[in-house]
Amino acid sequence: MKKFLFTPGPVPVPEEVLSEMSKPIIHHRTEEFESLFAEIREGLRYIFGTKEEVFVLASSGTGAMDAAVANTLSRGDKVLVINGGKFGERWGKICSAYGLNVKEIKVEWGEAVDPDQVKDALENDTSIRAVLIQASETSTGVKHPTTEVAEITRERDDVIIIVDGITAVGVFPLPFDDSGIDVLVGGSQKAFMLPPGLAFVSMSEKAWRFNQESNLPKFYFDLKSYLKSAKNNTTPWTPAITLVIGLALVLRNYREQGLEKIYNRHANLALATREAMNAIGLEPYAKNSPSPALTAVVAPPDIGAGKIISGLRDKFGMTVAGGQDQAKGKIFRISHIGFIDKADTIAVISAVESILKDLGYSFDFGSGLRTGAEILAME
Ligand SMILES: *Cc1c(COP(=O)(O)O)cnc(C)c1O
Predict the structure, then answer these.
(1) Could you count the other beta carbons within 10 Å of the beta carbon of residue 2?
(2) 54 pairs with which residues across the strands?
(3) What pLDDT does 379 receive?
(4) Which of 258, 285, 341, 362 is the most buried (most CB within 10 A)?
(5) Residue 378 has what pLDDT?
């Protein structure tokens, strides 16, 4: 059976990238590697929308989240975490592990944060030094209004905004320099169509100012070492060479396509999936602000998400993600990131209908597919 991966990380990788990564290993202290890395630095700047350096770490995304905190803040600093899902919760855990004073804005799962709440929190407590947020909260499928929140922190010299853009960078517009973001994090196994193992992080001038005073412990992820090495087109430690070779090709392809086309592709796949589910009577979990990276769908309560997920796996070889914690058994999540195209999306919509029919759900069979296919045909 042919296998399909519809999880919002890891994602399917294009075959040409897989074969690029099967080439013989090169040494990283060579001109060959340095010229590849020079190209990557440019490509990442383009995707991140920044003139700053974008660092390439050998870790999963959480490593870059860790680095973002360790390189900007200091022991006892008060931080404001936007917690509307598993990854928001993770910001809080990382900050607590470093001995920071964590204050949270709890957002109901499936909802986006209200920027006014952030504004009020910062006005009421001027000792807060950082706001930490997910541009796209993958556990709930919500897109938070990150650029609006960044407008608020931008006005303040003493507050930075640290953004987890792991399912946002390369998915929808989130221009680092133009929106006043201070730290932005990305990951290879999400929108970069690569296997897990690389994480990306970039820091604004303001964040570098915070870095000068930062006294949190850091060594492997000390971004000052990365900055110094980047200027020589290399990394301080042995990079994940295989993945870096794959990254160069992905970035070349992205550059050729252009950001607008990339953003439109994700928006179109997401809209088609959302409307298709809607047509068969299934609601999105993120009602007001869905992320174009994935669609979290509420399963019919009498059926539950578990049977839909196992049905897709057994009958169609398709892996979709379930819900976590309070959303477990309630939702299933279909990804639009990675090497996913219109044909894949048509297939998963149709497969969901087939499984629902098997499970005795009553609906107009084929109406989701018709709706989805019509939207996909428009792009
Ligand atoms: C995947 C993901 C992460 C990082 O998870 P890793 O397993 O460490 O790669 C962080 N934030 C969000 C929003 C994610 O989707």
Answers:
(1) 7
(2) 202
(3) 72
(4) 285
(5) 86
- The CA 35 to ligand 1 mean position distance, Å, reads 29
User: What are the φ and ψ backbone dihedral angles of 2, each rounded to 5 degrees?
Assistant: -70, 140
**CATH 3.40.640.10 domain extents, the chain:** 15-256
CA-closest residue to ligand 1 atom 6: 61
For residue 112, which amino acid is it?
A
* Topology (CATH level 3) of domain 15-256: Aspartate Aminotransferase; domain 2 (3.40.640)
The Cα–Cα gap between 1 and 50 comes to 43
Question: How far is the C-alpha of 42 from the C-alpha of 194, rounded, in Å?
Answer: 18
Low-confidence ranges of the chain (pLDDT < 70): none
| CATH number 3.30.300.20 given to 258-377 | no
How far apart CA 26 and CA 11 sit, in angstroms, is: 26
Tell me the β-bridge partners of 106. Answer: 83
Task: Specify whether the CB–CB gap between 10 and 61 falls below 8 A.
Answer: no
Distance of alpha carbon 292 from alpha carbon 264, whole angstroms: 9
Residue closest by Cα to atom 5 of ligand 1: 61
Other Cβ atoms less than 10 A from the Cβ of 182: the count is 26
Domain with CATH 3.90.1150.10 in the chain: 258-377
pTM attached to this predicted model: 0.98
| Spatial distance between the Cα atoms of 2 and 25, rounded to a whole number of angstroms | 30
* Ligand 1 pocket, Cβ-based, cut-off 6 angstroms: 8-9, 60-62, 87, 134, 138, 164, 166-167, 187, 190
Q: Whose CA is nearest to atom 15 of ligand 1?
A: 138
Supply the Cα-derived Rg of the chain in whole angstroms: 21
